[in-house]
C-alpha cells in the first residue's frame, strides 16, 4: 500500500478542483488532501483515483465522487467528538473523511462483501470507526441513537423515518432523495417533532436498496 509524492501532488490538484466547485470547509479540504483515495479503489483504477469522479468498487457499487463526499461532509458541520451515522460504508472513503473530522463513526453496509473488505481495510490505514455494521441502513441504528449527524451515501427513494427519529435535537441528516436523480437534502432537527428542510442541487448515486439484492 504505497502513497507516493506523485499521489500527494495529484491530491492537491483534486483539492483545488473541489474548492473551485464551492467547498470551503478547511477541515474537509484537509481530509481530502490527506486520505490516499487510490488505496480505496481496485488497482485497475489507480490512474483515475484523483479525478473528481465516482468509480466502480466491488459488488456493483461505487466510490462516491470526491466533490460529492466533500459537499455532504461540509453540510454535516462535524465537530470533534460528534457521533455520526453513515449509511452505505462502501469503500470506506467517506468513513475515513468522517474519522479525519474527528467524529465517532458508526457505519452500516448491506453488501456483505464490501462490509468484510472495508472492515479489514480501514484499520490498516489507521481509521477506526466506533462500529462498522452489516445491516440495513433504512432502520438506522436505534441502539446507538441519538446522532449529531447522519449521512446517507446512496440515493434514497424516500426519507426513512427512523433516520429522522434518531437525530439529536440540533442534529443534521444529509440525504440524497430521488430515484434516477437525487436532490441533496438537509434536515435539521429543531425540536422533538420539528425539522427544517433545505434542498441543494442534483446528484447521482447508486440506489439505497430495501430488499436483499
Ligand atoms: N460511502 C461510500 C459510497 C458507496 S455507494 C464510499 O465512499 O465508497 C453506496 C453504498 O450504499 C454501497 O456500498 C451500497 O451497498 C450501500 N447500500 C445500499 N443500500 C443500503 C442499505 N439499505 N443499507 C446500507 N447500505 C446500503
UniProtKB/TrEMBL annotation:
User: ATP-binding among the record's keywords?
Assistant: no
Which GO MF terms are attached to this record?
A: protein-L-isoaspartate (D-aspartate) O-methyltransferase activity
Q: List, alphabetically, the InterPro entries matched.
A: PCMT (IPR000682), SAM-dependent_MTases_sf (IPR029063)
Q: Which domain of life is it from?
A: Bacteria
Under Enzyme Commission nomenclature, its number is 2.1.1.77
UniProt cross-references to Pfam families, sorted A to Z: PCMT
Active-site annotation: 64
The entry's cellular-component GO terms read: cytoplasm
Q: Where in the cell is it found?
A: Cytoplasm
What biological-process GO terms show up in the record? Answer: methylation; protein repair
Key words, A-Z: Cytoplasm, Methyltransferase, S-adenosyl-L-methionine, Transferase
- List the catalytic activities from the record: [protein]-L-isoaspartate + S-adenosyl-L-methionine = [protein]-L-isoaspartate alpha-methyl ester + S-adenosyl-L-homocysteine
Protein function: Catalyzes the methyl esterification of L-isoaspartyl residues in peptides and proteins that result from spontaneous decomposition of normal L-aspartyl and L-asparaginyl residues. It plays a role in the repair and/or degradation of damaged proteins.
Q: Which family does it belong to?
A: Belongs to the methyltransferase superfamily. L-isoaspartyl/D-aspartyl protein methyltransferase family.
Q: Which PANTHER family match?
A: PROTEIN-L-ISOASPARTATE O-METHYLTRANSFERASE (PTHR11579), PROTEIN-L-ISOASPARTATE(D-ASPARTATE) O-METHYLTRANSFERASE (PTHR11579:SF0)
Query: What is the protein name stated in its UniProt record?
Result: Protein-L-isoaspartate O-methyltransferase
Q: Which organism is it from?
A: Bizionia paragorgiae
Q: Give the encoding gene's name.
A: pcm
Amino acid at each position: 500500500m504505497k502513497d507516493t509524492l506523485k499521489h500527494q501532488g495529484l491530491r492537491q490538484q483534486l483539492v483545488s478542483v473541489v474548492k473551485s466547485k464551492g467547498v470551503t470547509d478547511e477541515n474537509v479540504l484537509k481530509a481530502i488532501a490527506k486520505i490516499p483515495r487510490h488505496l480505496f479503489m481496485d488497482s485497475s483504477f489507480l490512474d483515475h483515483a484523483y479525478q473528481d469522479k465516482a468509480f466502480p468498487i466491488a459488488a456493483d457499487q461505487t466510490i462516491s465522487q470526491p466533490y460529492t463526499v466533500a459537499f455532504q461532509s461540509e453540510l454535516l458541520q462535524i465537530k470533534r467528538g460528534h457521533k455520526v451515522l453513515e449509511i452505505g460504508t462502501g469503500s470506506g472513503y467517506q468513513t475515513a473523511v468522517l474519522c479525519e473530522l474527528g467524529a465517532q463513526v458508526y457505519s452500516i453496509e448491506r453488501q456483505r462483501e464490501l462490509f468484510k473488505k472495508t472492515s479489514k481495510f480501514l484499520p490498516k490505514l489507521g481509521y477506526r470507526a466506533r462500529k462498522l455494521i452489516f445491516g440495513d441502513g433504512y432502520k438506522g441504528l436505534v441502539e446507538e441513537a441519538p446522532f449529531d449527524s447522519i449521512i446517507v451515501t446512496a440515493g434514497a427513494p424516500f426519507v426513512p423515518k427512523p433516520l429522522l427519529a434518531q437525530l439529536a435535537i440540533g442534529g443534521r441528516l444529509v440525504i440524497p432523495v430521488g430515484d434516477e436523480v437525487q436532490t441533496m437534502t438537509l434536515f435539521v432537527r429543531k425540536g422533538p417533532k420539528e425539522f427544517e428542510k433545505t434542498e441543494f442541487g442534483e446528484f447521482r448515486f447508486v440506489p439505497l436498496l430495501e430488499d436483499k439484492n
